[in-house]
Amino acid sequence: MYPDAHCALQHRNPWELLVATILSAQCTDKRVNMVTPGLFAKYPTPVDFAAVRPEVLANDIRSTGFFNNKAKSIVGAAKKVVTEFGGQVPRTIEELLTVPGAARKTANVVLGTAYGIASGVVVDTHVQRIARRLDLTKNSDPVKIERDLMKIIPQEKWILFSHQIILHGRALCPARAPRCAECVLNPICYATDKTV
């Protein structure tokens, strides 16, 4: 259904994708994409982000919500990337998980989208919800869902799979009003709240 699915967060490099992904927590990609062009014009490099005070950055990202925590994470991430990784976003899950603001979801987004490294399956709210609807997992914890999906999805499809499920969640299967009658996955969907 979605052969050309890709990351909706606009970015020009791994650092910008890391920042955008941190900003995307509890926020729409559309909103993040409205904020990041001005943000990256004001702070073009990790060094620039590392030099800004979190309370100043918080004002720049206010519209993304949870701006104080996100600002601390981004400034912390910039300092870590600059001091420990030579200004380059690391290319391994182990190293990336040491960067402030980069839990498994963020690390998988950056590694998969920026570097083409399938380190795991991105589990955002769409993947979490739709994986359960399709009976691909019984779990509600994102880490456990990721483990379940990694067992059944071939590794070479991990990156695309997440983008496809996220796009499906936006296009046909939104949480509040899934359009089940239009969905070709309907015959294999086990959701109790189908709208058919």
Secondary structure layout:
Blueprint: H1 14-23, H2 29-42, H3 46-51, H4 54-60, H5 67-84, H6 93-96, H7 104-115, H8 125-133, H9 142-152, H10 158-171
Helix pairs in contact: 1-7, 4-5, 8-10
Question: Outline of this structure?
Answer:
This protein has 196 residues and is mainly alpha-helical.
How would you describe this structure to a colleague?
This protein is an all-alpha fold and 196 residues long. It has two domains: 14-115, Hypothetical protein, domain 2 (Endonuclease III, domain 1, Orthogonal Bundle); 125-188, Orthogonal Bundle (Endonuclease Iii, domain 2). It has helices at 14-23, 29-42, 46-51, 54-60, 67-84, 93-96, 104-115, 125-133, 142-152, 158-171. The chain is globular, with a radius of gyration of 17 Å.
